[in-house]
Amino acid sequence: MTGAYTDGILMIYGPLFCGVRYLSFACKETIVTHTKWMRFGVWLILSSVPSANAGAAGSLNQLESLGGLSSENYGQVFDGSPRPAAAGLSIPGTGGQPGSRNQQDLRQMMLKNLDFIENMIRVQYAPAGWKKEQYNWDLDAEMQKARNSVAAGNITVEEYHKIVKRLLSSTRDYHVNVQFTRTEAASLPFAVMEADGRYLITWVNRAKLPLSSFPFKAGDELVAMDGKPAASIIQELKSQLGESSALTDSALASMYLTRRRAGAAMNVTQGPVILTVKPAGSESTTTRQLIWDYTPEQILYKTGSKSPAKRKPLPIPLAWLDDASWHGADGLQAAGGDPFKIGARESFVPALGELTWESAADAIFRAYIYRSPVNGKLIGYIRIPSYSPDDTDAAVAEFAAVMTKFNAGTDGLVIDEVNNPGGSVFYLYTLVSMLTDQVMATPRHQIALTQDDLVNALEYLKLEPQVKTDEDAKKVLGDSLSGYPVSYEVFRHMIEFSRFVIKQWNSGKRFTDLTYLHGVDYINPSNVVQYKKPVMVLVNELDFSGGDFFPAILQDNKRAVIFGTRTSGAGGVVKSITYPNQLGISGFSLTGSIARRVDGNPIENLGITPDVTYARTAADLQNGFKDYAAAVNNTMAGLLK
């Protein structure tokens, strides 16, 4: 296929694609409807590097022969199984089958891809020094392991995905994540969590598993799957997912016990499975057979991602610095009604007492006022599921209204942010501003800089002559930044931050001195509402990124008591990297900064240690978290003395 012919094809049919890296089509029409064009799309995207002696006629013949492929052949691209020889296509990962790309060429493609990933890590991964200090992490050694794995034999694309996953997981960093263009997945309609070394059912989808056919409930113990102990399967899943914080790793593996995704380089199970379950209060076990809800590999259909939510970049310098979200929540947000899912509107935390007021069912926030069973005081409760609401302005307005109500009618406040995947830095700053009447110090960051950041900062300085007042600032930035009110002072912070970036770059620093994100060193109290009464924040090991920052700020400024288990320690902001490739990599993310708290300690890997530690127990999962609720209320009662 000649370069000219390639250009012509892209020019004519380019609009069909949502993006080459996604291998999907605009409008996401069904495969049945657009089979012919989709066949062509796979041929175009996955075809080999143009050959000097491959003419247009040969390419047209290839295109025509592709019409003979049936839909069941599409899933074979990743697994190395044979393709119809008549098609004569060049598709990576075929293991040297007739008509496929030579294995040596595929290996070279993989090695070049590793070179690209290595360069991105060297240039943009901010915590590298900390990882060396903390874990003796050595990028050179990890890269050599990956290259050796590629060189070891005939590697399929699926196997290469696991190599890349292991490479990135070696950082022990929850922000370092890779997504593959894979659709193969499987799930069972119930969820499991670990407590006291046992794996207990936490939720059952009764629409799929009625009590009559699945007589198990929350609190029953999953002992084994197909005779294999649940604990052994958890260890296998942890090795596939990568390891960082033991508590968080265990929680994630427990969630994936019944949810498997090839897009995360996991081994996907299918077919029947026999579950061995020990009902709560029983000494004997019983078995039931279920079947995995299996989605086969179908590379022409991109399943998409719900984490993090796509947001329009803010009109600020180095806008990527606003992303404090965990990019690894795919597959953990899909089960509707599961109170343990990441980012659920309602969490596993039960009603803490007799309710005297409750927010509407369709409100953005689950909130209520309850009477404490300990001392009769009125306590407010609000659930923050994430820091990436669909509509930040609406969320900020509702949060302010709730805080206004709480100010007038409560003696204290419980904020529930368990299982929180993070989100926008400015949005969480906005929520913090409504919880205090004093300025609040923010974490400082060291940032990995690139030329793009320098250019961005230089361009931003050009706006300075245009902005002399609050109104000017709002014309440039809008009324708010993810809910954070825009003012002339905010704009000045951006200008000074831009100057800092330029100065650091010009002095030869590609990893900055400690600084504040966008120059915001202190969060001013809100002009709308300032909640001034005692606050406690419920956290756990499934709080990531912004879910680390929020309790860190409140704890560092002695504004709240933190209750629960240590957060995950995803301690920086995220850079997302996408690039054209023929190896099924949708993209990957790196930690572009490393945050340090007021005391100088990093958040990365260390997380936020609660002031009051409470680890869930098997009894919690079996009795609706009554002991947990009692501990929360006792802690709040202590704050009100």
Account of the 3D structure:
The chain is flat and about 75 Å long. The longest helix is centred in the N-terminal third of the chain and has 22 residues, at 103-124. It folds into three domains: 106-172, Histone Acetyltransferase, Chain A (Up-down Bundle), CATH 1.20.920.70; 185-295, Pdz3 Domain (Roll), CATH 2.30.42.10; 319-640, 2-enoyl-CoA Hydratase, Chain A, domain 1 (Alpha-Beta Complex). The chain is built from 17 helices and 30 strands. Strand 7 (221-225) and strand 8 form a beta hairpin. The protein is α+β, with helices and mostly antiparallel strands and 641 residues long. Mean pLDDT is 83; it is low at 1-99 and 300-310.
Strand content: 15-25%
**Overall number of strands:** 30
Task: Name the CATH superfamily classification of the largest domain.
Answer: 2-enoyl-CoA Hydratase, Chain A, domain 1
The residue-averaged pLDDT reads 83
- CATH architecture tag of the largest domain: Alpha-Beta Complex
> What is the spatial order of strands in the main beta sheet?
14-15-16-17-25-26-30
Most strands sheet = 7 strands, mixed
Overall geometry comes to flat
Discrete helix count: 17
Output the structural class: alpha+beta
